[in-house]
Amino acid sequence: MTSLDKPTEDDAHDSRAVTEAALFExxxxxxxxxxxxxxxxxxxxxxxxxxxxxxxxxxxxxxSVLLVVVRLVMKDTVKHAFSGxxxxxxxxxxxxxxxxxxxxxxxxxxxxxxxxxxxxxxTLAGVxxxxxxxxxxxxxxxxxxxxxxxxxxxxxxxxxxWGAILLAKCAILFPLYWWADTTQLGWVLVALKIPPFxxxxxxxxxxxxxxxxxxxxxxxxxxxxxxxEERERQRTGGSANGSAGEVGARHRRx
Length: 254
Description:
Organism: Streptomyces vastus
Oligomer: single chain
InterPro entries: MFS_trans_sf, UCP010219
Region (Disordered): 226-254
Transmembrane segments: 53-74, 81-97, 117-138, 159-179, 185-208
Shape: elongated
Structural class: mainly alpha
Keywords: Membrane, Transmembrane, Transmembrane helix
């Protein structure tokens, strides 16, 4: 049995450490969670107090933009903050167009529904979405599909978990969208931001920590390039030595 099939204790420890770091990077960590929750929390708080859609929407959009500016000033990655801005902006546009404050939450809810279905469908198709997301982070790209079956199985389990959690969240939120008022929907939505996310991330960590270590395809490519360069140097050096020998032989004959 190869080390890929049965990793050593050191390999397992390294795999867990790599998994923790990659998940932290991919999902934004504590700061990313704050950036996800804060705009919606500000919106529902202001709307609960004064029932003014415009001020609540402007405040939510303003804090989203501010979070992006802070990341830019600190020269930090802005992908999580930018995604928050776009999500809030769509919500503001929907709510302003319809005049219904509950529509501020509708784009995010539809996105959650679509994402939950995407996790399930891509896994059924043999290309689990969580593997597509985390593959580049682990520097394995799509090598897990054909070269690391144990890892593919772990990605499938994690994707099913994400899909089930997101769809369960939608099963709670969409009835509230129709039957509850804006403040009730808003507070439930804020309450459901972090716990389901943490559960999904934890399950992903559990599945991947037990899986074989990722295959670093970038390191393989670098090694192949170095080997090719070494062969080229040897070939060039051999040709040069051969030419020099031929010249010396001609001189001796003359």
